[in-house]
Amino acid sequence: MNENENNNILLDVKNLTTTFSTQEGNVAAVNDLSFQIKAGETLGVVGESGSGKSQLFMSILGLLANNGKAEGSVKYKGKEILNQKKTLEEIRGDRLSMIFQDSMTSLNPFVKISDQLTEVLMVHRGISYNDALNEAINMLDMVSIPRAKTRVHRYPHEFSGGMRQRVMIAMSLICKPDLLIADEPTTALDVTVQAQILDIIDNLKKELNMAVVMITHDLGVVARVAENVMVMYGGRAIEKGTVDEIFYTPSHPYTAGLLASMPRLDDDSNKALYTIQGSPPNLQNLPVGCAFSPRCEYVMDQCKTSVPPLECFDVNRHRACFLDNYQDLIENINRGQ
Ligand code: SF4
After folding, report:
1. 288 lines ligand 1 (CB under 6 A)
2. Distance between Cα 301 and ligand 1 center (Å)
3. How far is the CA of 28 from the centre of ligand 1 (A)?
4. Distance between CA 209 and CA 179 in Å, rounded?
5. Distance (Å, rounded) from C-alpha 95 to C-alpha 1?
6. Pairing outcome for strands 79-80 and 96-99
């Protein structure tokens, strides 16, 4: 990697492992995970529930529950931030911001939107209430809240679900962060509102030159907004690549299964959609060897005893799988149906 590329790296995560101590023993929610995010990049992090994708970013932001422990290294612009409470308090909500699926859990129902938005700016920027209020109104305009000047003085329950999600986005972006982490931001919304919210995030990303991590179980969302993709399963990254690489030539049976189970606009065959057999893994009781082995159509003896390492096999492409012949996974799934 040359010096320019190095300077461009916003977040550098190395060998991050997150463990929760429970009555049943230790649970590794994130296992030896490494990745980088460059300024202005959108990374899609894909996985079913229980894949560890949300806990990964809670670890990065220092928001783990009390029984959680994160180890490894997370550097923001070259500075170590993992478990650095004071630094994280300064940059969280300011340089690194997060949007959650349910806006009602992040907005205080008893406090007017104006007070919630201005407080963020007054705390992080130290500006006056009036200046902060003007910025808040601008931000509500940017996320397409009609009549922002009057609506800013309302309470969260006076907004619809889609509008509240826009307010959440405004709150996350009001300090113009370098990185926005969006955790299933549109899952609870209907398809039309979902498309509007994704467009708003994408437009603001360009306007503010910010990097975005889109955490989702929905490959359609990833296709719409991301440039690069990391697929997670059982707390590990199992495939990484650009959106085109992952969508056109998946190299892991799990990724191929996810893609084959997506409805396609160009397929009018009326064939039933593929479903990956079995259920997502229980992190408290992961299978020995490859976590996907109980559900994998290609499972071999080796898969049941050893964990496949994540290996680079082409420029920036990575996969964690022992299968040698992975070139036609999607075609094989479609033929086998
Ligand atoms: Fe399937 Fe084996 Fe690859 Fe795991 S390592 S995905 S079980 S082929």
Report:
1. no
2. 10
3. 20
4. 9
5. 25
6. unpaired
Which atom of ligand 1 has the smallest separation from the CA of 293? 7
- Residue 83 identity (one-letter amino acid): N
H or E, element range at 191: helix 191-208
Which atom of ligand 1 is found nearest the CA of 304?
7
Residues β-bridged to residue 22: 25
* CB of 31 closer than 6 angstroms to any ligand 1 atom: no
Domain boundaries, the chain: 233-337
Label the pairing between strands 228-233 and 236-242: antiparallel
Condensed to tens digits (0 to 9), the pLDDT of residues 81-122 reads 999 999 999 999 889 998 887 766 778 889 999 999 999 899
Helix or strand (DSSP H, E) at 142: helix 129-142
**Ligand 1 lined by 322 (C-beta under 6 Å):** yes
Q: Determine which residue's CA is closest to atom 7 belonging to ligand 1.
A: 293
Buried b (16+ CB within 10 A) or exposed e, 128-140: eeeebbebbbebb
Query: Could you write out the DSSP letters of every residue in 91-133?
Result: HBTTTEEEE-S-HHHHS-TTS-HHHHHHHHHHHHH---HHHHH
Q: Quick one: what percent of the chain has pLDDT higher than 70?
A: 93
Q: Positive or negative, the Cα torsion across 53, 302, 308, 228?
A: negative
